[in-house]
Amino acid sequence: TMPKEPAVLRQNILDTTAAILACGIDPKKCFLFRQSLVPEHAELAWILGCLTNVPRLLRLPQWKMKRASQNNEGTVGLLTYPVLQAADILLYKSTHVPVGEDQVLHLELAQDIAKHFNKKYGEFFPVPKAILSEL
């Protein structure tokens, strides 16, 4: 949600890909792709954003914390990032999502968006459940 220098962003993508492969992810057994090359993520985020009310997004603690750290100048990208996360989950009709405690509220938003969409347009998206790691 913060502007990046194009060269730094390209290097970050390569570094992240290298780290994923170094962790043992086998591209012969799973799909590895750059999300920004799949326009359906942004397209679904737009549709879901049209079904999500602003007061709900303003109540998310991550918005409040990040906005405070940006001198109360939070961006639209920061505000709507949880809707993009919901689109990332719902696009693939995910049924279970591994999340940390700090992302539970964002997953709950994805669940609510899925339910709202299904109520309005018919059963389409599964309502994803959280998989919380036990530490």
TrEMBL record:
<keyword id="KW-0648">Protein biosynthesis</keyword>
<keyword id="KW-0547">Nucleotide-binding</keyword>
<keyword id="KW-0067">ATP-binding</keyword>
<dbReference type="GO" id="GO:0005759">
    <property type="term" value="C:mitochondrial matrix"/>
</dbReference>
<dbReference type="InterPro" id="IPR002306">
    <property type="entry name" value="Trp-tRNA-ligase"/>
</dbReference>
<keyword id="KW-0436">Ligase</keyword>
<comment type="similarity">
    <text>Belongs to the class-I aminoacyl-tRNA synthetase family.</text>
</comment>
<protein>
    <recommendedName>
        <fullName>tryptophan--tRNA ligase</fullName>
        <ecNumber>6.1.1.2</ecNumber>
    </recommendedName>
</protein>
<keyword id="KW-0030">Aminoacyl-tRNA synthetase</keyword>
<dbReference type="GO" id="GO:0004830">
    <property type="term" value="F:tryptophan-tRNA ligase activity"/>
</dbReference>
<dbReference type="Pfam" id="PF00579">
    <property type="entry name" value="tRNA-synt_1b"/>
</dbReference>
<dbReference type="GO" id="GO:0005524">
    <property type="term" value="F:ATP binding"/>
</dbReference>
<dbReference type="InterPro" id="IPR050203">
    <property type="entry name" value="Trp-tRNA_synthetase"/>
</dbReference>
<dbReference type="GO" id="GO:0070183">
    <property type="term" value="P:mitochondrial tryptophanyl-tRNA aminoacylation"/>
</dbReference>
<dbReference type="InterPro" id="IPR014729">
    <property type="entry name" value="Rossmann-like_a/b/a_fold"/>
</dbReference>
<dbReference type="InterPro" id="IPR002305">
    <property type="entry name" value="aa-tRNA-synth_Ic"/>
</dbReference>
